[in-house]
Amino acid sequence: MTFRLIRPQSGILTKKHPLYIMKIRTIFFVSDRTAITAETLGNSLMTQFNGVERDRHVIPFVDTEARALALKKRINDSYTVNEGRPLVFSTFTDDSLREIVAESGCIFYDLFNDYISRMERDLRQESSHEMGKSHGVVDKNSYESRMRAVNYALVNDDGACLEHYQQADVILVGVSRTGKTPTSLFLALQYGVFVANFPITDSDLDNCSLPRAIKPYKKKLFGLTIGAEQLSRIREERRPGSPYASLRTCQREVSQVEELFQLENIPFLNVTAISIEEIAAQIRLTLGFD
Questions:
Q1: Residue range 28-54, pLDDT digits in tens
Q2: Which of 109, 133, 157 finishes a domain?
Q3: In the chain, what is the greatest distance between 2 CA atoms, to the nearest angstrom?
Q4: Which residues are bridge partners to 88 per DSSP?
């Protein structure tokens, strides 16, 4: 189902305008490699535009003429699904494949070539135009370090293997279901940070004290907290109707854990309305990681 957006003769229709209606736009993130960069950058740009519901399609490895032609047809066919020209965010490195897709009549955003052409002029050097370099194993040592960090995060998840905490760069702490595990894995995979995570339990909260196991590593601790309502919704998905998921329980735990963090002078972050990328960036900034 699509919605028609009626525009006045002049001016931009804002969300507060009485004629404003939610609209759906088809968006393609495409590349001759993984399309990760196209998706990441394209999504970042789209967050600046409220009121646009996205019909998203990620199309990686469009690395032959046949695949480019098939994608061109798919983009053109999308006109019959949603109103407006489809938006295409591209990181093609192959000029011929890029041209095929760009001819589809879409609104084409070339996230690589627009900048590479300028950089070639500024640096007075031609780029390699090689596929896959942005996510290839360019630095083998860095790649292996990140894989070791991922393995460390998996082994030291949720308070396991306390004997390895001496190796940790940071230990994430918080009550259950505040995003400690995904944040640990993101920091490991993206930055090679060795992250353990440890749950704060009811007994710790009742005593308003740090668990004995992590007291020696207080300088490595970073707390995660969250709005009680959101925590209740998350827990409800895991244990529907349980005291563990009740709003009252969540309100008590959030209040007590934040009091504990303040008492122990542990830096902490409320993750209610921020992405995992922002959480990781805040942790790195606070703890001084490059």
A1: 999 999 888 899 889 888 888 887 788
A2: 133
A3: 68
A4: 28, 108
